Amino acid sequence: MLEVAVIEDPAAAGVSLDPVRTRLLAELSVPASASMLAARLGLPRQKLNYHLRALERHGLVELVEERRKGNVTERVLRATAASYVISPAALGRVQPDPGRSPDQLSARWLLALAARMVRELGELIAGAARAGKRLPTFAVDGEVRFASAADRAAFAEELAGAVTSLIGKYHAEHGRDHRVLLAVHPAAGTKLTRES
User: How many CA atoms lie within 13 A of 116 on its CB side?
Assistant: First the structure.
């Protein structure tokens, strides 16, 4: 089971968003059969089988084993990942595109950049898995509290200068391209004020 899987297919994305199926994906972090799930969730087994077949058809659950119980074969399934992310690629031509309006101070542009990152990482993860290789990535996650909007602006300017300097120092004529994305935004749940 993967830790995180990226859903790129629009049909698979639609299947995964059904509330019953989302609950089944969560329950199937541990392998179970339709009858086990029916008892656990209080839903008819036939209804669960319908949803499980849809999830299986789109590669969101997989068969772990089949058990014979009298005249019946019990299928034990599990989710293919512990968590799922829907790639903006599933939206086709309406997916966010950072090239439409590049504005370093726009939250919507930042969101479009993040969407591009999800899409590209989904493609790269799938390609690395097919090739049996590890994907070289690096990320930094942190929080900083600014005393004022002026401090935040000074931080952004200094950060941009440092990153630009590093890119200039290490950028080579030949080799494999890597994307660098840095973002600064208020933490979720932060009360926004006129000064922030």
Answer: 14
Angle between helices 19-27 and 34-41 (to 10 degrees): 110
Q: Which of 3, 46, 47, 52 is nearest to 24 (CA)?
A: 52
Instruction: Reduce the DSSP state of residue 88 to 3 states and report it.
Output: helix
Q: Which tens digits make up the pLDDT trace of 7-17? A: 999 999 999 99
Tokens of 97: 């595109």
pLDDT in tens, 89-142: 999 999 988 888 888 888 899 999 999 999 999 899 888 888 999 998 999 999
**How far, in Å, CA of 140 to CA of 66, rounded?**
43
Specify the amino acid at residue 24: L
Give, for 52, the enclosing helix (H) or strand (E). helix 45-57
Quick one: CA torsion of 123, 127, 133, 138, rounded to 10 degrees? -10
Looking only at the bridges linking them, the beta strands covering 72-79 and 81-86 are unpaired
